[in-house]
Design goal:
Blueprint (H helix, E strand, L loop, with lengths): L2 E8 L2 E8 L6 H8 L4 E5 L1 H4 L6 E6 L11 H7 L1 H4 L7 E9 L2 E5 L3 H21 L1
Antiparallel strand pairs: 1-2, 1-5, 3-4, 4-5, 5-6
Length: 131
């Protein structure tokens, strides 16, 4: 079963929660799990440097305007060190699947999740050692 990783922005930092991907729920799946009314899907630029492609971030499109907390881990995945724009609020990590109709957002395999966790550890290590 494919899964997603929800990175929840809290007072004490980012907390990761794995859950099954529910394609049938459509947009409601994102709205409910990200606690938002509008979403944006952005590339995980921070992973491209690690030669990891096809990961995407589903985020609250209005989080910064609604007083959401900065999501440190999601911001690293987004590549904010290069462009300076953090992600705010809860963020869902998914994969992109390329089809004849365009790009579809899908869940991740267990191997994808392991790869993602390793990449997060590396990004956090690099960021904390740059300060």
């Amino acid at each position: 079963m494919d899964k997603v990783l929800v990175l929840k922005a809290t007072e004490n930092g980012t907390v990761g929660v794995e859950m099954p991907f529910d394609k049938e729920a459509g947009l409601d799946f994102y709205y409910q799990n990200l606690d938002c009314d509008t979403i944006d899907i952005v590339e995980a630029h921070g992973l491209v440097e690690l030669k990891l492609k096809d990961f995407c971030l589903v985020c609250d499109d209005e989080g910064i305007f609604n007083g959401g907390k900065v999501n440190g881990i999601a911001s690293l995945l987004y590549g904010f060190m290069e462009h300076g724009q953090p992600l705010v609020g809860h963020v869902m990590v998914c994969k992109n699947k390329y089809t004849d109709d365009g790009i579809e957002t899908v869940g991740m395999s267990d191997d994808d999740l392991k790869t993602l966790y390793t990449a997060i550890e590396k990004l956090v290590h690099e960021y904390t050692n740059k300060k």
